[in-house]
Structure formats: structure tokens, C-alpha cells
Amino acid sequence: xxxxxxxxxxxxxxxxxxxxxxxxxxxxxxxxxxxxxxxxxxxxxxxxxxxxxxxxxxxxxxxxxxxxxxxxxxxxxxxxxxxxxxxxxxxxxxxxxxxxxxxxxxxxxxxxxxxxxxxxxxxxxxxxxxxxxxxxxxxxxxxxxxxxxxxxxxxxxxxxxxxxxxxxxxxxxxxxxxxxxxxxxxxxxxxxxxxxxxxxxxxxxxxxxxxxxxxxxxxxxxxxxxxxxxxxxxxxxxxxxxxxxxxxxxxxxxxxxxxxxxxxxxxxxxxxxxxxxxxxxxxxxxxxxxxxxxxxxxxxxxxxxxxxxxxxxxxxxxxxxxxxxxxxxxxxxxxxxxxxxxxxxxxxxxxxxxxxxxxxxxxxxxxxxxxxxxx
Length: 375
Description:
The chain is an alpha/beta fold. It is 41% helix and 14% strand.
């Protein structure tokens, strides 16, 4: 089949509904991963858009089998070590067995706090799913070496291939812009956190508030509830999120003080990547924090980022991709006055051609068009 044939895409959501994050829990960072294949290839159809019905197909599997060259599935953190629920794996497996075209896995990762393979356990259906995917793809794309080791150890597959995060190659112009923005930064830093109640991240959050850095919120509904409150209510001090109130004196989050003003002027939440990338390009000097894809959204926008690692899944990505990173508890983070001094991109640029060739080998092996590189 010609490479101009459309490509089916499923997995992570490329955009989020208005109900997110209050009644629709999700991580907006997953949109960065979800949009990667759509930005890489000319003609893609996402399973939940239902635009394939206009072509006369009642269901997505029938459309893929009749019209598409491949099905790309963005899996991200689908696997979780120690998980005991087989349900989601069975549903996905049942659907994929209906697909007749090659299946390409983008960025499969495993959620895990540590990297002790001796303690690693996956449900039986998760293992069955991975083994099935291994038979349907030339190379199964995984985000890091730890995930590859787990799949080899628990699932017995031999074609897991480390790509890092595919979204890094979704904008060919990003690296040229990154070089320019490293030399002449414009805008203000942006912070994104994961567990605001833990000491290190709580300190970074409060520091971001005091320094008037942007707060880009990928998940937390309490921050968003407070933001919605302050835009409609002049006296919202009782609704300050508990993780801010716990370490902030009452006088600092009262109705007239800077916490309310901060959320009015520096808080951002995105439900589509177009707005997110434009915001980064226009107003952000750099990003930092523990949210991997919030930082990746910055890099894809041509702005530098500093990854703060707190678990195995983040570490395996930043180490493979040679991205600038520090442990979230690092003493260097006690002073965020000049974040540029904490992030060096020399190692990343030195390895970028190798990372690019590695990713193109993965694409070509799976019968997909390769990606250009400009930097």
C-alpha cells in the first residue's frame, strides 16, 4: 500500500473536553504524546473523531482494515507494575485482534517507583497484550531502557526498541528555535508539578508563586477549582488549595493578597496542544518541574526545559534522550533565580543526530515515513 494511505491512530486523547479536570480526570501532558503521530504524518484518523464515518465506514476497525496503511497506538503509561486489574488490557486486546494492518506502538512506558526487576509483576492479560503486539510490529516502541528490560523479563519479547518520547520529533523546526532561545531567552519561566503535597514539590510551587513564574497545570483539579473561584469571586481565600495554604501564612492568601492575584494572572491550563505550544512560544522563557510532557511541550515549542526526576519512568526517558535533568530534591533547586545555569543542552545536541537516526530506524522498520531533522 502506498505511503500516502491514511494512518489510523488510537490511544491517548489528542484534546480534552471542557469537563477536564473537574469531572474528567486526565493528564493534559498526554495530549503531547497523542498528537505526535498526527503532526508527523500527513493523513491520520483518530479513533474517537468518527470522521471516518463520512467515508462510509460504521466502525474504526473496518476503516483501518480497508483504507489505512497502519494503526498507530500511543500507549504512554498504559502498563503499571503491580497492577491487578486485567480489564483494560482485555478490552484493548479484543479490539486489536480485529485489526488486520500493521500495528505500531508509540512510546509504551511502565509506571514504577523503582527499577527492581526482581519485584516486577504484571497481570496476565497485560503480558498477553504485549506478546500480541510483539507479533504485529517489527519493532515495539518503548520509551526507555527500563521498560524494555521489564518487557523482555516478564513478557519474553525480543523486539522491544527504545525510542524515547516520539513527540520530540513532531516539530522539525523546534531544535533551530531552541538554539536561538537558549542564546536569547524571552518570557518568564513556567513550572509544572506532580505531587504538590510532598515537601520538595510544595517548596517549588510556593517559590514559583512568589517569583511570579507561570503555573501550567496538567492535572490538579484543586488548583483549577481555585482559579475558577477567583475569576468570579473577589473573596476566595477559603478556597485556596490545601497544599498552598499549609505552608503559606493566612495574610498571604487573603482576598487582597498575591496568591489570588497570582492565579488570576499566572495560572494556565490547556485542553489542546495548539494553544499550549503557541503560549510557550510567545510567553515562556523555559519550563521546569516533574511533569515530563509539560516540559516536552516546551521543547516542541522551541523553548528549553529542565526535567526534575522523581520516579523511574521520568529517569529512563531523560537519561536515554540526554535531556537536562536534576533530582527533585537537588540542593541546586534551592535557588531558582537563574534556571538557565541549571540546564545545559550541549549533551542533548551532541546526541541528537544519533537519537534522530535511531527513531528513523524504528519508523522505517515499521514501514512508516522517516522524519527530517533541522538544528
